[in-house]
Amino acid sequence: MRPLLLLALLVPAALAGCATQQTLDAQSAASTREIDAMKQAVERLTAGQQSMDARLAKLESGQALIASRLDAGAGTQHNIDSLRTQLDGMNGQIAKAQETAEDAVKIARDSRLVSGKIVDSLRLNESMISYAYEQPELTAQGRAALDKLIADVKPKLPHVFVEIIGYTDNQSLDSQNRRIALERAESVRRYLHETGGIPLDRMSTISYGDLKPIASNISYEGREQNRRVLVQVLK
């Protein structure tokens, strides 16, 4: 009786042990499969990362090449622009020198009957000659001052020579300043000839633009003083 009882107890235990081992084996196999799947996923990710790194390196290399070409081109263009700027400056200086030389020749030719001594002078400021709408215009005050000058000059002809010099501030380009100053001087010359009857060959006009300021161009008051026309009577 006892052996049978013992057998009855051992058989279920053995069966339970077999079931537990099967479960463990199944779990182990499942874990192995999961590990294998994870390894494969890691391998794929690694391969993809290497491919992306290679593409990125290629793009960076191309970017560096383009940047170096752009830098080289920019440097060349900068050199060209610099040379052009220097050439323009030299051309401007040459043009100014030619104009100054022509003015000097003109003065020497027209003033051949006078010694060059200044016997009278008149300075016209913006209250006497304005430049509205890019056209110089003598004001009543300016005409009155020129009428007085005409009365003093006419009795002395032809033994005097009238030199009319235009000046500006430095707020515009050199070429524009010279043009503005010359137009102001020419407007004075026309008035002296048309109203005062002074012969054109006894007068000359010169433009110095902003080259000879008498005050600082930093302040408005200084610029206002520099915008002027100087009339000099030479004997």
Question: What's the gist of this structure?
Answer:
This protein is of the alpha+beta class.
Q: What's the structural blueprint in terms of helices and strands?
A:
Layout: H1 2-110, E1 118-124, E2 129-130, E3 137-138, H2 140-153, E4 161-167, H3 174-194, E5 203-209, H4 220-226, E6 228-234
Parallel strand pairs: 4-5
Antiparallel strand pairs: 1-6, 2-3, 4-6
Helix content: 55-70%
Q: Report the biggest beta sheet as strand number plus sense, adding barrel if it closes.
A: 4 strands, mixed
CATH architecture of the largest domain: 2-Layer Sandwich
Give average pLDDT, whole number. Answer: 75
What is the count of distinct domains? 2
Tally of helical segments: 4
Mass-distribution shape: rod-shaped
- SSE string: HEEEHEHEHE
In the sheet with the most strands, the strands line up as: 1-6-4-5
Q: Classify the secondary structure makeup into a structural class.
A: alpha+beta
Strand content: 5-15%
- Please count the beta strands (DSSP E, at least 2 residues each): 6
CATH superfamily of the largest domain: OmpA-like domain
- Give the N-terminus to C-terminus distance in angstroms: 165 Å
If you consult CATH, what is the topology of the largest domain? 60s Ribosomal Protein L30, Chain: A
Low-confidence stretches: none
